[in-house]
Prior knowledge:
Layout: H1 2-27, H2 36-48, H3 52-71, H4 73-93, H5 104-124, H6 131-143, H7 147-154, H8 156-165, H9 168-190, E1 195-202, H10 205-216, E2 221-226, E3 233-242, H11 246-256, E4 261-267
Antiparallel strand pairs: 1-3, 1-4, 2-3
Helix pairs in contact: 1-4, 1-5, 2-3, 2-8, 3-4, 3-6, 5-9, 6-7, 7-9, 8-9, 10-11
Amino acid sequence: MKTRIFFDYLGITIGSFLIALALAVFLVPNRIAAGGVVGLATVIFYLTTFPIGITMLIINIPLFLTGLKIMGAGFGIRTIYGIISLSIFTDFLQPRMTALTNDLLLASIYGGILGGIGLGLVFRSRGTTGGTDMIASLVNHYTGITVGEGLLMADGIVVVLAGIFFNLEVALYAAITIFIQSQTIDIVQEGLNVKKGVLIISNKPDQITQMVVDNLNRSTTEFAAKGGYSCEEKKVLLCIISRSEVSELKKAVTDIDQDAFVIINDVHEVLGEGFTEIME
């Protein structure tokens, strides 16, 4: 338990640093207001020269109180830590770093990737850095919408403001950053090691299960089903395999039952025996 807590806070710290670094070397120097409280603070910075970190801290106070009330003290402690860490890192790095590129497209792409990795680490560590990412976490908690999708929706307002106070071109680049960031967040949280979930409907389920066990060293789960048209009782097999095993499975199923109905879907994360260990 203590080890997990340590790694949670380490992840929030590293993630906050990466977000601040993305702001300092890619986004802020190029006036890319990439949504949320960070983007709003960027707009305010260029209008008033008020430090971005302090601005984020001030704006996050009411959002934090809302999150604390809904999600509980554990969420609140991690959120306080994330908010303060990001604010400190941002105000430390931003005046001391220079832009790595003045090309708006490169800045929007790499700023989105670096910031997305940072936010993904924070979310994976069960924390937030406040702002719309905290709102997105709350939406994810209650609706199941991915955090990346939640951020994409919530950040649209700030892009509009950037277009009003800066110009339309910069706002369009900010939209690119937000999209790339949202996709990167989901990759960090769900992983790159995509598995395949296979549903097999066949009149020879026992033979197919035995083939999966013998040839692929996997197992299957059986579900009782009934054909909607034929009204026949069926067995549906569920099997999780790697991408490299898909061709072998399809050929073997066809050899056993040419009339089998096979559905193959991407599975972004598999927890449990034979796959990723479940973390408490």
